[in-house]
Specification:
By secondary structure, the chain is of the alpha/beta class. Helix content is 28%, strand content 25%. Helix 1 packs parallel to helix 11 (401-421) and helix 5 (193-202) packs across helix 10. The chain starts with 10 loop residues before the first strand and ends in a 7-residue tail after the last strand.
Length: 497
């Protein structure tokens, strides 16, 4: 069935939704491997960089080492392991410019609906511009690189009595750069990466807070690592970058895999190692088991990394403290806890997490039928069963996000080359009825568990299971069959008329 759009609507070979790390990285792969293909990146905001241009809270930095968070094809050019947000944003911008990707970005374009037509063998995208206008664009392949959380809304739980609080309340995702916290009492609610980043950052500099309290219901594992990578520093002095960079990257990948595997296989041993490291960095007699002893095994949730133990240093100085308790109610001057203690505050920061949202909240339709994500199964963690020519990016939960993004970008280029050689225009993952369902993300983090029922399903075997292991995925994505579990269709002569 013809849509009548062929002569009036722009058509591209590939559309990439999102100009963050995932979108920029994928576009670089596409530019290098398939320079003949036309493509565009649609970015809803007015800047590239995704998370790194959105988040403005003090101390914003990576929670993964930059030698694995950086792209494989353009290594991170510094020995800094945990980099600040501004440096990461500049790295993304430089990468986009170096590969010419920046010329393909269209800002202020939010995709609100995408409809696949089997008759046309293409996607039709409905786009809302920042000026409120509606546009239409078609493409043969649609790549969703918009991440899996809502950019316009952070998660805030029901906080009793919040309306009674007389101070300021801010979520880190919507931080006001003009917020003045100098000399103020600040309470940061949360125990994840954002909270452990904010707490020491708020105690530093001329405009530092008078005192910062991290209020948490449940502790997290906190691991101190060096701000710089000593191996990277040493090798950079003696070896050219073309040799040193792959060595450092391989070393860090091996460390990540080893840490995760040891944590999962020998949780009691790893808990003891982490406890000893934490105890050594805190004042004598500190209640480590109250504030740094989670009720779950290491890496059942993401581990928090802090550079050079900055969180522990802030606690030792007395500039910050951690309180593990439950909120009874907010008061006009602070927070009353179930233990009876009251925390006085001028500012409360709700570092309480993210809201998940697949495909930027856009509607997906295949031949007039809405795609219900929980009814689909994720193919290699990058495509959906029954949905043609669509790839999405979800990075690792136990390692750097970009490690998986790079692999998916490489695999996509392999898939497109295979389709070109065999004259195929459509690739559709076909679900095997014998494959049993599993959660897509086997991860206990609150933001995952709140929305796991809204996500596609995973499977109990390849190619429907997620390895969450770079070493395994590297072989699968670079060497594995592109035909396994996939149905292909020839190009129809009527397309493009």
């Amino acid at each position: 069935m013809s849509t009548g759009l062929e002569s009036t609507t722009e058509h591209l070979d590939v559309v990439i939704v999102g100009a963050g790390l995932s979108g920029i990285g994928t576009a670089c792969h596409l530019t290098t491997e398939h320079p003949q293909r036309s493509y565009a990146l649609l970015e809803a905001r007015d800047d590239l960089g995704g998370t790194w241009s959105l988040f403005q809270y003090p101390g914003i930095r990576s929670d993964s080492d930059m030698h694995t968070l950086g792209f494989r094809f353009r290594p991170w050019p510094d020995s800094v392991a945990l980099a600040d947000g501004g440096s990461i944003l500049q790295y993304v911008r430089d990468t986009a410019q170096e590969y010419g990707v920046d010329r393909h970005i269209r800002y202020g374009k939010r995709v609100t609906a995408s409809e696949w037509s089997s008759a046309e063998q293409r996607w039709t995208l409905t786009i809302t511009t920042s000026e409120g206008a509606t546009e239409t664009l078609t493409c043969s392949f649609l790549l969703w690189c918009s991440g899996y959380y809502r950019y316009d809304q952070g998660y805030t739980p029901d906080l009793p009595g919040l309306a009674d609080f007389g101070g300021s309340v801010v979520h880190p995702q919507h931080w006001d750069p003009d917020l003045d916290y100098a000399g103020k009492r600040v309470v940061v609610i949360g125990s994840g990466a954002t909270a452990v980043t904010l707490v020491p950052a708020l105690t530093q500099g001329e405009g530092r807070a008078a005192h910062v309290t991290q209020l948490q219901r449940t502790p997290s594992y906190v691991l101190s690592i060096g701000r710089t990578d000593p191996v990277a520093e040493t090798l950079s002095r003696w070896l050219p970058a073309a040799i040193a960079d792959p060595i450092v990257r391989a070393k860090n990948i091996a460390q990540i895999i080893a840490l995760y595997q040891i944590s999962q296989r020998f949780p009691a041993f790893m808990k003891n190692v982490l406890r000893k490291q934490t105890t050594a960095q805190l004042p004598e007699g500190y209640e480590v088991d109250t504030h740094f002893n989670p009720p779950y095994a290491p890496w059942d949730q993401r581990m928090c990394m802090v550079p050079n133990g900055d969180l522990f240093k802030a606690i030792r100085r007395g500039d910050a403290e951690i309180v593990t308790d439950h909120i009874e109610t907010f008061t006009e001057t602070g927070i009353r806890l179930t233990s009876g203690r009251e925390l006085e505050a001028d500012i409360v920061v709700t570092a309480t997490g993210l809201n998940l949202q697949m495909f930027g909240g856009a509607e997906l339709t295949v031949d007039g039928e809405p795609v219900k994500l929980p009814d689909t199964m994720a193919y290699k963690g990058m495509m959906l069963s029954g949905v043609p020519n669509l790839v999405f990016m979800i990075g690792y939960t136990n390692a750097s996000w970009t490690l998986k993004v790079d692999l998916v970008g490489e695999y996509l280029c392999r898939l497109l080359r295979w389709m070109d050689r065999h004259g195929k225009a459509v690739a559709v993952p076909e679900r095997d009825p014998a494959v049993e369902e599993r959660p897509l993300l086997d991860f206990d983090a609150g933001y995952v568990q709140r929305s796991i029922h809204e996500l596609p399903r995973g499977g109990d075997r390849k190619p429907w299971s997620l390895a969450m292991n770079y070493a395994i995925d590297a072989v699968t994505f670079r060497r594995g069959s592109v035909e396994e579990g996939m149905r292909f269709e020839d190009e129809r002569a009527t397309v493009g008329v």
